[in-house]
Specification:
Keywords: DNA-binding. By secondary structure, the chain is mainly alpha-helical. It is built from six helices and two strands; from the N terminus they run αβαααααβ. About 21% of the residues have low confidence.
């Protein structure tokens, strides 16, 4: 059981896109890409299939999106997940 916990924890820190409470080691999507397109939170939420409130939680760092949702966001902005979400460099 110990190796499983180590592997799971490492994956969460490495990817930084674990659904649920944040770990404090990620730099979150802050809405910059959305604002460059002059989209409201409701506009982007509609494109990626979430509520406006859900998107607000992502932008404020209260919720970390699933990998699938992060990939949808990257596709909408024609970029990569790594551009939208990054690990904190101080952790390395």
């Amino acid at each position: 059981m110990g190796i499983w916990w180590f592997t799971a924890g490492f994956f969460i820190l490495l990817v930084g896109l674990f659904r649920g409470k944040n770990t404090g080691h990620e730099k979150y999507y802050k809405g910059r890409a959305r604002k460059k397109k002059n989209w409201t939170q409701a506009d982007l939420a509609k494109h990626i299939g979430v509520s406006r409130q859900g998107l607000n939680s992502i932008e404020t760092g209260k919720f970390i999106p699933s990998t699938l949702l992060a990939l949808r966001m990257a596709k909408v902005f024609n970029t990569t997940v790594e551009v939208l979400f990054q690990l904190d460099d101080a952790e390395f």
